[in-house]
Predict the 3D structure of the following.
Amino acid sequence: MEQINFKQTNLNSSRLIYGCMRISGNNTADDRAKGKLAIRTAIDAGYNHFDHADIYGGGASESLFGEVLKESPELRDTLIITSKAGIRPKNDENSYAPTRYDFSEKYILDSVDGILARLQTDRLDMFLLHRPDYLFNADEVAQTFALLKASGKVKHFGVSNFKPSQVELLKSAMSMPLVTNQVEINIHNIDSLLDGTLDQCQLHNITPIAWCPLGGVAYSAWGNTFSVNDELRIENELNKQAEKHQCQPWQVVLAWLLKHPANICPIIGSTTPERIIAAKKALELDYSREDWYRLLEARNGQSVP
Ligand SMILES: NC(=O)c1ccc[n+]([C@@H]2O[C@H](COP(=O)([O-])OP(=O)(O)OC[C@H]3O[C@@H](n4cnc5c(N)ncnc54)[C@H](OP(=O)(O)O)[C@@H]3O)[C@@H](O)[C@H]2O)c1
């Protein structure tokens, strides 16, 4: 599969990243077997970059991936493993505490130790802060990152769901680079195009990663406010383009993301082997500026001014 260098790093990532949020399912034996097959299918299809978070499956997704690494230790050096932490669930020792964000030093250091233990590895290639902690202290986070780097537990650092101002704040305190911002981008949610996120990525050599790239097409997007007519318009245009490019509508959506000059890397979250493989078709489409604006127009219900 096409690879892309994550700027400011030596990481050459498959352009499509495999997302491990759903791999443990309900953590039944059947679901776990399906998850392992998905991981192995992705590796065989050329995905070398795997996205995790400590909360996926309550830790079960990382543990499942750790089992694969234990079964095939030779894989570790061939893979880029990213994980995230900072969302602190309420079901911990203090029942008074609500679900909250927590970037305090101890919480992040302990979280990374937990991630490494579950993944059965001694290092993460990238560690990301999952969602901005409204109470975060940039100097404390920079210090925590420095400790993680010095210990060899994390090679590179990034963020997720950060607004441009939050990236600027954290960057200002860091001596190391921030190498990625993982944000929701799909045909329904184009905030990152409008709020400066993708411009900032290009300006600072930050590689954007798109989560839920098929949101609103394969399933309902988060906070979807699109009407039935809106959805029909998008669907019609996707069908037209799919026919033109001899592919499936959801592959067009991926091509639309890939076209952006910020070099967006979509995370593929399907656990269906055929879809994990078929997603690569998007990398082959000769997707034009006209296609791109047509789909935007269908999404917006009007042409650009
Ligand atoms: N940073 C964050 O805050 C954040 C938030 C959410 C997710 N993520 C990351 O992003 C990754 C991708 O997110 P996602 O899993 O929501 O992404 P996705 O790839 O947009 O969606 C995957 C879902 O769509 C279904 N699907 C895919 N193609 C389909 C089709 N043609 N028809 C019908 N259903 C289809 C899949 O079902 P099947 O499995 O049955 O194929 C699966 O349920 C996650 O794994 C995680 O790593 C990050």
